[in-house]
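@channel sequence for tomorrow's demo:
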Amino acid sequence: MTDLVARYWDMVLPTGMSPLPRLPLPAVTDRVDPVVLAGLLADPRCLDGFGAASGRRRTDLLAALAVWLEHLPAHLVPEPMRSRAARLRFVVWSLPFRLRALGEDADVLPERVDPPATRPGDQPPPPQMLQVDQAVLLLARTAREEWLSHLRAWQDDPWLSAVHHTDPARFEWELRWVTHAWPDDTAAADVRGRRLALVARRAGDIERGDDQDRVAGEVAEHHWLPRAALPVGSRASGPGGRRRAAAFGSLALAPLLLYAAQAGQLARWVALAQLAVGMVAVIAARPRRDALLLLRLPAASAAGALVLLSFTPRWWLDPDAWRVGLGLLAVSMLYLIIETRLHGVPVWAAVRRGTVIGLIGAGYAMTLSILILGFAAPSVAEDGQCLLGWWQHPPYTAHPYLPAQAAACADALHAGAAAAPAGFVLLLTGWSLAVGLAAQVLWDDRPVTAPLGRLKRTRGGPS
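structure tokens (generated this afternoon):
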């Protein structure tokens, strides 16, 4: 455990190089030398005596520095350093809770948590009435909320914006340390995915889970989803989160596979069942988990499909319309890759992540297309009765009208048959996704991966 803590201090604590090799622990909070403060925030290991100190003494030194930062007036901390001050406090105070996630209940808490003196010669204020573990819990939660607020506003923070633009992987690394106890190779593989919970030692599973879910949802909505990092955001939602998200998304394959196997009648009913089950799942999901289902994609696709249904029936008569649908799917995929890239994601990671989001969107759009063409279009589209029975016809040959409507449809449409069902299903799929994404850009300035229906959320409130 001693080696683990030492690696934690060496790897997570520094954010740069200190301009000075040795710095004394500040003793007062009425003034501060900006050079000293910059050095302490860049690498707190430059504290005088830190290198030669034992593990417990190092913890006491860092705790004293964190308490000093806690009581330092905000106007004395230059704006470019405030995010790093919050980060340092979070790194220090969260260590006991990270060790508990490993099953290590060793005492790494400081001996005292006393505020510093205000001016030289003053006596320090009386010690806090809270016990040390209660004080550390309060300080850890306060530091985490402040650090999260800086991460949300990273574009306005000089240090965070520099990290985001010059080293996007480092920025994402910082996010992982907010939600996970040990996200890197500093711990064994079986505990690397355990989430961080800032709760009391005797807290129950419900309280621990609520704390973890709230923070994971916060980071996913503000960072992982705009960067199209769906697997990472799903993993932060808890054990099995990635598998649940993958299973939900892969359900869209069922109607497609059934239709490809010429079971169109079953495919449209499966699509209808998926719609009902999906709505129930969203209603029953834990707070903020719905964000991982990317509900803006099916909502946008539904809007795009309604636009196409309002057109003349020419689109489902053209035997070459499938080429347009395929092209629109490709354009949609490229748009999602570009949007991901513009959020600062490296090129190949943007290609990979954008492709995943595009495939999920295409799956949603395909399911909605089969559903709409199977139930709504024959009733509401112009000359929609001519589409009746398409689900019972071979997918890749022209669809003849049913005998009862053949004469009327041929006279109204001036065509002896509709296009192959697979062709107009593919066209509706590509059109609905592409037009839905375009509409998303026009009506909202949020990415398509943003949660549906939440323009502003009260922090910590229910979903």
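heads up for whoever presents: The chain has two domains: 2-236, 241-443.
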